[in-house]
Amino acid sequence: MKTTLKRRAFIAPLVLAGFASWLRPWARGADRVSEPVDFSTTANEALQAMTRRAGELSVKGVAVVAFIEGDRVTSWSSKMVVVGSMKTTPTEKDRGSNLLGIAYAKAAEMANSLKDSGTAGRPPLTGEFGWQGGVIAKTKTGYVIAAFSGGPSEDDVRVARAGLQLLVSRL
Asked: What's the angle, vertex CA 117, arms to CA 123 and CA 156, rounded to 5?
């Protein structure tokens, strides 16, 4: 008899704790529990879309995508892919360009301004160029960024939009 009472005394709190954890999402006001999204898979698909678009436009360069969770930029997850070339060849007129650095500078500008690159409405900060070619969107879980560097600004924006469209649909 004493063993049965000890088991009941031990089991009852476990059952109540399990029931309470089951109710916790509703107790916090959440109307649903969302499934986690795999950024890596989604990023790969967005980078493939950007690579296809760059091919259609016959531009080479670097594509970058990033996901910022939440309303404030304190960290991000990002991926990149080289689409043909990571740098331009130096000429008599210039030393060449690090297209990866430019693409990330566009992304950094967007993370700071929460506006498409080149449209911040202020002079570029040190480390920013103010060049177009990056696009950003607010999603239900945070912000998504897509940037491309390698072609004329108009083409860079077109390539970036191909990636952003996929990111927005999934994140």
From this structure: 135
- How do residues 74-111 score in pLDDT, each as one tens digit? 999 999 999 999 999 999 999 999 999 999 999 999 99
* 50 vs 73: CA distance, rounded Å: 24
Contacts 24+ apart (CB under 8 A), 35-44: 37/141, 37/170, 37/171, 39/67, 39/77, 39/171, 40/77, 40/79, 42/67, 42/166, 42/167, 42/170, 42/171, 43/67, 43/77, 43/78, 43/79, 43/167, 44/79
Residues 87 and 104 reside in one and the same domain: yes
Token pair for 36: 């986690």
**Integer Rg of the chain from CA:** 23
Share of the chain above pLDDT 70, in %: 78
Q: Residues 44, 26: one domain?
A: no
